[in-house]
Design brief:
485 residues; alpha/beta; Rossmann fold; 2 domains; 7-stranded parallel sheet; 6-stranded parallel sheet; globular; binds uridine-5'-diphosphate-xylopyranose
Length: 485
C-alpha cells in the first residue's frame, strides 16, 4: 500500500462513492473502491439502503448491522461504509417497477444526494473530498460544483456506448435519436466510431423506446457527464483504441478495466452478490472439457415466457450439457413459473442444471465450460473474455445490441443466436447451439477468444495499459484536488 494520500497542510484525501443499485454496476464500483483505497485514499462507500438490505438478506441472515467493508479495513484499507435512502420504501419492488422508479429517481433523488453529500463534507472539515459517482446519475456535476468537489464519473459499459450517448445531439441532428426501428442505416459521422448500423444502436435510442425512461435519462445524464472532471471507463485501451482516443479530445478518459479482475485487491472480503450463489463445481467436474454451455441473462433485464420456452426446448433439442441461470424475477411481471411444464423439467434431468444464481466468474473459468449464451451485458462480456470463452449473443435491451456488435462483428469472439433482434425459434436455437458446441466454432473464433483473453489479462498486469492508466489517473486526480483547494 502507498502512503496515505494527503493534501496540502496534511489534509487527508477522501472519496465519496455512490453507484446505481444494480449488480453490473456494484461489482466494478467495489473493485474501484478497493483500488483507490490501496493507493492511500480514504473512501466512503455508499449503498442505497434497500440494496444493502438485499445483500444482508442474501448473505448475512437478514442482519441489519453488517459493515460490508470491515474485512478490507482489517487489511489496512481506509474504507468506511454507509447507506442512504432513495425515494421509495424498502419493500417497493424497484425492478418490477423500473419506469416509475427511475422517473422518481430522476426527479427527487438529486435533492437527497445533494443533502447526503453535503452532510458528509461538512461533518469532515479536515479532509479534502472528491466524488466518484455512476455516470448513469443525473446529479453528480451539480452536487460536485456546489461543494467544490472534484467530480469523477465511472462508466460501466463499453466506451463505444459512452461515445454514442455522449454525441446524442449529433445523432438527433442526423435523425438517429430517436432512430427508426426497422430502417437499417450506416452511421459514420460520430467521432471515434468508424461505422455502426442503426440496428446495433442502444435499444433505448430507438423510436419505439422514445417514451422510455432510459431514452429520457440519456440526455439528462450526458448533460451532466460532459461536466465531469475525469471519466473512468471499465474497458481496455487496446480493445477500443479509436473510440477512447476520440473521447480524449472532449474530456480526460482513463480505460482501467476490466475492474472485476484488478490484481492484488481483497475483493473476497466484500459481499457483492445480490443473491445467494449455488455451487455447481461438482456437477461441472463430472463433464468433459469444453462440453458445457453456460446460459445467463444477467441481473437486470426481463424477458417473456415465450422466449424462455423457445430457449428451453432449443437447449433440450440441442443435446448439449448446459447450466442455465434463471434468476428470480426474470419475467418482470411477478410470474414465478419461468419454465415450461414438468415434461421439460424431466427432459433436462440428464444434461441440464437450472440455478437461481451462481458465482459466474467461477463458472466461466471452469474448464468444463466451452461457451456462454449471454444477453451481452458488459460485465458478462468482459468475464467471458477473461476466461477465453466464446459467446452466443442474444441481446435483450439497453447497451446489449452495441456489445453484440463488438463481440460478433468487430472482435469475432462470438456468434449471433438469431439474425433478427428479439425473435427466437426452438429449432434455430437448437441448431445454433449444437453446431457451436460440437465443433461448429471456427478455429479463427477460438484463436480470437484466446488472443483477447491474453490481451485483457495483460492490461491488468503491473505494466499493463489499465494499471498505467490508473496510476496516471491517481496522479491527475491528486493534482486537480490540490489545485482546487
Ligand atoms: C446491466 C445491463 O443490463 C447491461 O447491459 C450493462 O452492460 C450493465 O448493467 P446486467 O444485465 O446485470 O447489467 O449484466 P452484466 O453487465 O453482464 O452484469 C451481470 C453481473 O452479474 C456480472 O458481473 C456477473 O458475474 C454477475 N452474475 C450473473 C453472477 O454473479 N451470477 C449469476 O448467476 C449471473
Amino acid at each position: 500500500m502507498r502512503n496515505i494520500s494527503m493534501g496540502e497542510r496534511g489534509r487527508k484525501v477522501h472519496g465519496i462513492m455512490i453507484c446505481v443499485p444494480y449488480q453490473g454496476h456494484l461489482n466494478p464500483f467495489v473493485s474501484l473502491a478497493l483500488k483507490l483505497a490501496s493507493k492511500g485514499f480514504a473512501i466512503t462507500f455508499v449503498h442505497l439502503e434497500f440494496l444493502y438490505r438485499k445483500l444482508c438478506d442474501a448473505h448475512h441472515a437478514n442482519k441489519t448491522d453488517v459493515d460490508l467493508f470491515s474485512g478490507a479495513r482489517e487489511l489496512g484499507l481506509d474504507i468506511r461504509f454507509t447507506t442512504m435512502a432513495d425515494c421509495f420504501p424498502l419493500e417497493f419492488d424497484r425492478d418490477a417497477n423500473f419506469p416509475e422508479y427511475w422517473d422518481t429517481m430522476v426527479r427527487d433523488f438529486p435533492a437527497l444526494a445533494d443533502e447526503f453529500v453535503g452532510n458528509i463534507v461538512s461533518s469532515e472539515p479536515d479532509m479534502l473530498h472528491f466524488l466518484v459517482a455512476d455516470t448513469v446519475y443525473n446529479w453528480p456535476a451539480a452536487v460536485a460544483h456546489k461543494y467544490n468537489l472534484v467530480n469523477v464519473s465511472l462508466w460501466t459499459q463499453p466506451a463505444l456506448v459512452y461515445c454514442l450517448a455522449y454525441h446524442w445531439d449529433l445523432l438527433e441532428q442526423n435523425g438517429h435519436f430517436p432512430c427508426k426501428d426497422d430502417v437499417p442505416e450506416e452511421i459514420k459521422y460520430v467521432p471515434g466510431v468508424e461505422s455502426i448500423n442503426t440496428k446495433d444502436l442502444m435499444h433505448y435510442l430507438k423510436e419505439s423506446q422514445f417514451a422510455s425512461v432510459a431514452n429520457r435519462l440519456t440526455r439528462l445524464i450526458f448533460e451532466q457527464a460532459k461536466m465531469a472532471d475525469f471519466v473512468l471507463q471499465n474497458t481496455v485501451e487496446e480493445l477500443e483504441p479509436q473510440t477512447l482516443a476520440a473521447l480524449h479530445k472532449y474530456l480526460p478518459n482513463y480505460a482501467i478495466g476490466p475492474l472485476n479482475f484488478s490484481k492484488n485487491l481483497p475483493t473476497n472480503t466484500v459481499t457483492t452478490s445480490l443473491w445467494s450463489e449455488s455451487d455447481c463445481t461438482d456437477w461441472l467436474g463430472s463433464k468433459p472439457p469444453a462440453s458445457v454451455l453456460y446460459v445467463s441473462f444477467g441481473s437486470f433485464v426481463h424477458t417473456n415466457k415465450q422466449v424462455l420456452e423457445e430457449l428451453a426446448y432449443g437447449l433440450v433439442l440441442s443435446g448439449v450439457n448446459f447450466i442455465w441461470v434463471i434468476r428470480q424475477g426474470i419475467l418482470g411481471d411477478g410470474d414465478t413459473n419461468a419454465l415450461p411444464s414438468d415434461s421439460f423439467q424431466d427432459a433436462i434431468q440428464e444434461r441440464g442444471l437450472i440455478l437461481g444464481w451462481c458465482d459466474q466468474i467461477k463458472v466461466l473459468s471452469n474448464p468444463a465450460v466451452g461457451g456462454f449464451l449471454t444477453h451481452g451485458g458488459w460485465n458478462s462480456t468482459l468475464e467471458s473474455m477473461w476466461s477465453g470463452v466464446p459467446m452466443i449473443c442474444y441481446p435483450i435491451g439497453f447497451d446489449q445490441p452495441c456489445n453484440r456488435k463488438l463481440v460478433v462483428d468487430d472482435w469475432e469472439i462470438g456468434v449471433n443466436l438469431c439474425e433478427d433482434y428479439g425473435s427466437v425459434d426452438r429449432e434455430q436455437v437448437a441448431h445454433k447451439i449444437k453446431s457451436f458446441m460440437n465443433g461448429g466454432v471456427s478455429d479463427k473464433l477460438k484463436e480470437n477468444a484466446s488472443r483477447l483473453r491474453q490481451l485483457v489479462h495483460n492490461a491488468v498486469e503491473i505494466d499493463g495499459s489499465s494499471e498505467i492508466n490508473f496510476d496516471r489517473f491517481v496522479k491527475d486526480l491528486e493534482a486537480k484536488i490540490h489545485a482546487q483547494n
